Amino acid sequence: MVELIAQADETGLAASGLACLDRCVPLFGSGVDEQVLRPLWANLAEGTAWGGALAGVRQALEPAEAADAAADPAAVLARRMLAAAPAERTAGALRTWADGCSAAALQIHRLLDATGEGVAPLVAAELRRQIRVLELLGASAPGGGLRQVLDVSTEGRRVLRAVVSRRARTAP
């Protein structure tokens, strides 16, 4: 994973961090539109600056922050991923962000996996998704694998949504 992030170009780094954040959208609350990050994906595909889209996403998710009074550790990590997203798409800033998002997403999946044994299935699946995202981007022309990356991310978001939903139903 570390090697793949080190080899990724600017688009790959942005997509890697964004995909981690995208998979964690269910942690922002049940009222959040799961497509809230679409403007960032579109700007990434077009190769345009994403500072304005990022500001819009942060504003859209602000009300969800106020509703998170319970300070769920997994939700806090997801919010930190969003807060750390660089407004300027530079390789250095994106590398730091992608690396941080990777670690945070794995930690989120650790927190949500109830097995507590070795490498938990939820964590292993997240690691596979992260590797797949970087492989897809590394094997294609710039911007060419974004559709497949979004598909991988959407699948991971569905899994996390189910885990969050199950957790909410069984919470005391």
Walk me through what this model shows:
The chain is mostly helical and 172 residues long. Helix content is 72%, strand content 0%. The chain has helices at residues 2-7, 10-23, 38-46, 51-67, 73-84, 91-112, 121-138, 146-170. Helix 2 (10-23) packs antiparallel against helix 7 (121-138). The radius of gyration is 15 Å and the shape is globular. The mean pLDDT is 87.
SSE blueprint:
Blueprint: H1 2-7, H2 10-23, H3 38-46, H4 51-67, H5 73-84, H6 91-112, H7 121-138, H8 146-170
Helix pairs in contact: 2-6, 2-7, 2-8, 5-6, 6-7, 7-8
Q: Which H/E pattern describes the elements? A: HHHHHHHH
Tell me, rounded to a whole number, the average pLDDT: 87
Structural class: mainly alpha
Distance between the termini: 37 Å
Number of helices: 8
The amount of helix comes to over 70%
Uncertain regions: pLDDT < 50 for 5+ in a row? none
Biggest sheet, in brief?
Answer: none
Number of strands: 0
Gross morphology is globular
Gyration radius, in Å: 15 Å
Strand content: under 5%
Main attributes of the structure:
single chain; 172 residues; mainly alpha; 8 helices
Short description:
This protein is 72% helix and 0% strand. The protein is mainly α. Helix 2 (10-23) packs parallel to helix 8 (146-170).
